[in-house]
Amino acid sequence: MKINLQLITASVLSFGGLVLLFCGVFIDPEGQIHESLLVAFGEVATFSGALMGIDYVYKKRS
Known about the structure:
Blueprint: H1 2-26, H2 35-61
Helix pairs in contact: 1-2
């Protein structure tokens, strides 16, 4: 059960990070959130999701 929750969390983090990266690049902010903040958080979320996914693969193999 914990492994499945880790896979779901990694997928959501990766997908959310990619969405924020695209929002930071393609959507013109209206003064509320600067695009660099969206891009920075998107990169962090995508990286952490990738690390959790890699950890999931290695735990599943053993």
